[in-house]
Design brief:
Blueprint: H1 14-19, H2 27-37, E1 44-47, E2 59-60, E3 68-71, E4 79-82, E5 87-91, E6 94-97, E7 102-107, H3 110-116, E8 118-119, E9 125-127, E10 136-141, E11 147-150, E12 154-162
Antiparallel strand pairs: 1-6, 2-3, 3-12, 4-11, 5-10, 7-9, 7-12, 8-10
């Protein structure tokens, strides 16, 4: 079973999964849908030492928001200046435990990108379920002017996503498709 009573979950047997057309890998997600409610995953958080706890935890800005906003939690409670073309690691003051089978993706905020050219060079950044270190956000100023990040500013958003792991199989040939090996614009722009 994907979960047993010792881990705090109900057991979903292999017979139930076969009837539902589920693979062993998807039992975890069946459990979440059945026992926790579709779309709800608990991310456990702790504060880094010295973090400003008054900034609060990540928050969804609207009922339909996919990403929860992350805030800059600067050790000196001041301002971090990011020059044009420069990158900076912005601390959030948080550490997290992500359930196995999930990741957290760190993504840019669209308003900062449009108005100031502030983006994340590794977007989306991935936080793996077994990472327990400080959560920092790598920001880059792709704009024309220096940008000030103040203590408490919303700098990025985090999206929780399921993870599928692949098995890799070396074969002699790949299947043939209409596209074939065409890439980098081979499908055109106007059609």
């Amino acid at each position: 079973a994907a979960y047993d009573e010792g881990r705090g979950g109900a057991s979903i047997g292999s017979t139930d999964c076969r009837r539902a057309g589920l693979t062993a890998r998807s039992r975890h997600f069946a459990y979440l849908e059945r026992e926790e409610g579709l779309g709800v995953v608990t991310i456990k958080l702790t504060w880094d030492e010295g973090a400003d706890r008054s900034l609060g935890l990540p928050v969804y800005a609207s009922a339909g928001a996919a990403g929860a906003d992350l805030r800059a939690n600067l050790p000196d409670r001041g301002t971090l200046v990011v020059q044009p073309g420069a990158r900076a690691l912005v601390p959030t003051g948080l550490r997290m435990a992500i359930p196995e089978g999930f990741e957290v993706q760190i993504r840019p905020r669209s308003g900062l990108a449009l108005k100031h050219g502030i983006t994340l060079p590794n977007a989306p950044g991935t936080i793996d379920s077994d990472y327990r270190g400080p959560l920092g956000v790598i920001v880059m100023n792709a704009g024309q002017e220096a940008f000030d990040i103040g203590h408490g500013d919303r700098i990025a958003q985090m999206v929780v996503a399921p993870v599928l792991r692949a098995e890799f199989d070396m074969v002699d040939d790949l299947s043939v498709t209409a596209r074939g090996s065409g890439g980098f614009g081979s499908t055109g722009v106007s059609e």
